[in-house]
Amino acid sequence: MQAEPAFRSSNGLAVLAFQHLAILTGKPKLQNDVIAVCATYSGCLPARRT
Predict the structure, then answer these.
(1) Quick one: three-class SS letters along the chain?
(2) Which region, left, alpha or beta, applies to residue 26 given φ > 0 means left and ψ of -120 to 50 means alpha?
(3) What is the model's pTM?
(4) What is the pLDDT of residues 1-31, one digit of tens each?
(5) Which residue among 17, 35, 48, 50 has the highest number of C-beta atoms inside a 10 angstrom radius?
């Protein structure tokens, strides 16, 4: 396995964990902040599945 896909997958798992934490807080602004960060740094994340 090449390094880049591994880093992208790792970043994706970190985003998933942060999204879960944001959901658990019950504060929609935090959830929106995580989504905004994903949009800004999408080049560092795995490709979205459709």
Answers:
(1) CCHHHHHHHHHHHHHHHHHHHHHHHCCHHHHHHHHHHHHHCHHHCCCCCC
(2) left
(3) 0.79
(4) 588 999 999 999 999 999 999 999 999 999 9
(5) 35
